[in-house]
Amino acid sequence: MLPQRKIIHIDMDAFYASVEQHDNPELRGKPIAVGGGQYGVVAAASYEARKFGVRSAMPGRMALEKCPQLIVVKPRFQRYKEISQQIRTIFYEYTDLVEPLSLDEAYLDVTENKKGIESANDIAREIRQRIFEETGLTASAGISVNKFLAKVASDYNKPNGQKTIHPTQILKFMEELPIEKFYGIGKVTANRMHEMHIFKGADLKKKSLEELIRLFGKSGNYYYNVVRGIHMSEVKSHRIQKSVAVEETFWENLLDEDSVFKQLQLISEELEARLSKKEIKGKSLTLKIKYKDFTQYTRSKTQEVYFAGATDFYKTAQKLWELRPFDKPVRLLGLSLSNLNTQEKKQISVQLKIPFEEFE
């Protein structure tokens, strides 16, 4: 029998939008979008806005068409990072095995936890209560034996809810799960599966491993396993850092080179600040440009010696900018440093076998 773990996936509810509504009571109960506007893209939408079909990554103009009364709020990423750190501090009171996925979600392995609480369900409920008491925000949680199932479960009773997929319920749950609810299956793949009459997990389960690999390449092996509740990826608390990046999405598109260079200077300084905190250096610098029409362009430079700092980043970024293929309004700029001086460290993770009855 495979070893059983207790994994929790915590996902904040409409995080950016909820922060704005919490900090500004006048926005509560109203449809708001963080980012967007006529020329931007929605970074997050409140649940009130979602009722009108407004979604993250949607062009702002489309969002306003769907919801004319939409209130557009300028993003405050520093504030979101601040609250995210508060939330992670809570996580670490329960376990050191925390794998953040973004500012608003993370996996926690609580197979063994610092408080000695046997029920993963109770831990998740307690963490969600702590988050609400300390930040005023709500979170949803999924609990199961692996990361895939926990991720799927956290979306099940949103917002402000949680769901446990008990080991004895896994196979039935996965057979009944709509294919578009599978984590890792996007809209395009889901539509393709629908054309093959694959609508639920039970339909996917009928396909052999060989057939799935033939149809979907390497992803076929993933689909074959997860529909059977098999996902062996561990919660990685100390990921090997392969790059450090700073990106900035602009409230208004940048229309001239002077504005671009001013932002690249600021981004270079921020990148240096992040690197200096961790004593990280790198030899490859990549410039990322996203245009108003969402086309994206990247160009890198690798050198034999480590980049020296902000001035070095900025001068190199200017040269990479000169190689751009288009002269169009810019909505995002980013610089990332890779080929770092960090060394890989092997981790030994011990998985304990937990009786099913202890899971809930």
Oligomer: single chain
CATH superfamily of the largest domain: Reverse transcriptase/Diguanylate cyclase domain
Structural class: alpha+beta
What's the β-strand tally?
A: 12
CATH class of the largest domain: Alpha Beta
Number of helices: 13
- CA-atom Rg in angstroms: 22 Å
Estimated helix fraction = 25-40%
Subcellular location: Cytoplasm
Family: Belongs to the DNA polymerase type-Y family.
Subunit structure: Monomer.
EC number: 2.7.7.7
Protein architecture, described:
The protein has 3 domains: 7-12 and 80-226, Reverse transcriptase/Diguanylate cyclase domain (Alpha-Beta Plaits), CATH 3.30.70; 15-79, MutS, DNA mismatch repair protein, domain I (3-Layer(aba) Sandwich), CATH 3.40.1170; 243-340, DNA polymerase, Y-family, little finger domain (Dna Ligase, domain 1, 2-Layer Sandwich). The chain contains 13 helices and 12 strands. The two termini are 19 Å apart. The chain is globular. The chain is α+β, with helices and mostly antiparallel strands. Helix 6 (147-154) links the parallel strand 7 (139-144) and strand 8 (162-164). The strands form 3 sheets. The protein has a 5-stranded mixed sheet with strand order 5-6-1-7-8. A 4-stranded antiparallel sheet has the order 9-12-10-11, with helices on one face.
Lay out the secondary structure:
Blueprint (H helix, E strand, L loop, with lengths): L6 E6 L2 H9 L8 E4 L6 E4 L1 H4 L9 H7 L4 E3 L3 H15 L6 E5 L2 E5 L10 H16 L3 E6 L2 H8 L7 E3 L5 H7 L10 H9 L5 H5 L3 H8 L2 H8 L16 E12 L2 H22 L3 E10 L4 E7 L7 H12 L8 E11 L20
Parallel strand pairs: 2-4, 7-8
Antiparallel strand pairs: 1-6, 1-7, 2-3, 5-6, 9-12, 10-11, 10-12
